[in-house]
Every structure is written in C-alpha cells, then in structure tokens.
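Throughout this chapter, every protein is written as a compact record of paired, labelled lines. An example of such a record is reproduced below:
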Amino acid sequence: MNTLLEDFSLEMTGKDAARLEEARHAIPPGTRINVTFLENEEPRMRLDAARAVKRSGFVPVPHISARRLRSQAMLEEYLTALSADGASENVLVIAGDPTTPLGPYDDALAVIESGLLQKYGVRHVGVGGYPEGHPAIADSVLWSALERKAATLASLGLPGAVITQFGFDVDPVLKWLEAVRERGIDLPVRVGVPGPAGVRRLLSYAARFGVGTSAGIARKYGFSITNLMGTAGPDRFIRALGEGYDPQRHGEVRLHFYTFGGLAATADWIAEFRRRELA
C-alpha cells in the first residue's frame, strides 16, 4: 500500500487553474498534474493551466489529443508555447475522441513518431491504457497499439508511463497489469482512480467513458446505484488494489486521480487517506 500512495498524480482541466491555489496546501511539492485537452477549451486556457501548475511547484503534464490536431503547425505552436513556459518536458499523448482525425495524426503513435516531441523538449511521454477495454475499440487493437507505443518509446530513448482509464473494480485492473507484463511491456503504470464525488456524477462519467458499473461492482466499490444522492470515495478500491498488488507480477504501479472538477476536494481526500493509512 505504501508504494501505491507515493508519487501519485492528479488530473485537472483548464478551468481548474483558478482552483489550484485552494488545493495547493494538500498537494506534495513536485506532484505530477495532468492538464486535459478538451474540445471546448481554447489552447490559451490549457497553457494558462500548465503555467499555473508549474508556478505552484508541481510538474505539469499537458495532454496532446492526436485526432484533435488540425495540422502539424497546430501541434508545433502548442509545443512551442509549452516549451517557452518550461512546461514541455512531460506530456500525455492520446488518440482523442473524434472518430475521424481532424488533421494529419491518426493516433497517439503518429504524434510520437513525428519526432516533434523531442524537438520541443519533451523528455517523458505518457500513453493511455484501458484495463476494462474501450467501447469503440477491439481489445486486439488496444493491445497492438500499446505494444507499438512502448516499443517506439524504447527505440527513441524516451522514458514513459501508461496512465489508465478509471474504473470501479480492482479485479480487471490486476489481470490487465499481469497481461501488460506478460507481453513484455515494462513501462510504469499509473492506475486511474476516481476522486471522491457524488454518485450521480461518478455514474455519468462512467457512462461517458464506457466504464462498467453493475450493481455488484457499485456495492463492492462503496456506493449504491439506487442512491444517487450519496457520495463515494475510492477507499475500498485503493485498499483492494494494495492487497492484490504484487510488484513481481504487476511491475511499477502508482495511482492517478481523476478529479472530475473537484481538485481541492480530491487533494484533501488523498491527504487524509494517506495520513490514516500511513499512520
């Protein structure tokens, strides 16, 4: 459990930049904070958020959504601005939601293979992982993509990590981690965890991202899908993950918290949970 609670990372949107100051007291210096690449946010909002993360003493990890990039110039402009702010060393590259690419990049691998990341100072690349699969992508395609990204990063000499989609059930996460290592992928993995939130909000995000939420899984996680007025934190999930985690079989694993807009609430919850568990 102790190792899982070390060096956790957080996720925020551009809109959360204004709330970072109120969360700052509960976040350890040097914590990695991912900045999402959302369709309804202007590039300036993302850049301001990355700048706020760095200014607050944390490590910005801006997302790059390959299929939302309309041109190579758009990618280079974004990387140039990040580099100027000293926020380009760490990025997360994902394919993104659009079914049809808006520009020249079909997927995350295309961005990684472009050579532009290193040109603008990227030194560490995160990629996505899906322990419960993806509603629109076959498992065989997901595995092939992850293997190719891991191999490409290794060939380029770029350190990286896998950041997974969040879930409510530990069992598929542990099985997926074993499968990752059996396939020879040795990248560190950050397991996605939903931060504390209202049950209604958690279910809405689960539906949006295709995460399973049967009644049995909900009960095991610690909330009831019949009580939408309640709230839930990931206490049981993290404890169950800690109990099942075996470094020999699962490799290097840390936690990545999806804050769903509640950055301060998530930071406070983590600080209290760590205090209790590590006491």
